[in-house]
Amino acid sequence: MRTVLICDDRRSVREGLTRVMSAVPGVQRIDCVSTADELLTRYARQSADVVFVGTQRAVASGAEATRRLMAAHPQANVMVFGAPDDGGSIAAAIAGGARGYLRWDASRPELVAALAHSAVGAEAGSMPMQRSASPGAGVNLTEREMQVLRGMSQGKSNGQIGRELYLSEDTVKTHARRLFRKLSAADRAQAVAQGFRCGLVS
């Protein structure tokens, strides 16, 4: 390694990730773009070993950038980064072809470790999803767990899900913990992404 390309429309995010990545051994070049159009132009001119695309709640730019890049360059190695409770945006980016994700609230050592892992040549399909295991083919969620997972995929809070299902917030949290365990997920975003991959949500 190698080369890293960051795509996010927020300058502070691009600069922050650049500072962190510059400390990762083996990273030789870090470039930044702010839009999907710039990402496609930049990648076509000179590809990168890893592409990091930022996602935001209720903003489709990250998922759209991922989808367009993967459609044009299926070999691209894309990792998305976003809020741990923003399962919808993460899932949309995963659906668009991203191969892993990082949480916004990851500690600096976790972020550096994940970036280093990507930088030393993770093969397509093996990008690290934080503290995850590959989703199994035989995931068996209860109806309540499915309802909670669907609510998460729509970006609803535990309180909102509880009100719709006539459940207390604590009960929703209990169902969430159980489905996290079944999906080998560390948080809401990863649960939705795993659920999408397993065909449990769409």
Automatic annotation (TrEMBL):
Pfam families: GerE, Response_reg. This is LuxR family two component transcriptional regulator. Residues 134-199 form the HTH luxR-type domain. Residues 3-119 form the Response regulatory domain. SUPFAM superfamilies: C-terminal effector domain of the bipartite response regulators (SSF46894), CheY-like (SSF52172). Keywords: DNA-binding, Transcription, Transcription regulation. InterPro entries: CheY-like_superfamily (IPR011006), Sig_transdc_resp-reg_C-effctor (IPR016032), Sig_transdc_resp-reg_receiver (IPR001789), Tscrpt_reg_LuxR_C (IPR000792), WH-like_DNA-bd_sf (IPR036388). One of its GO terms (molecular function) is DNA binding.
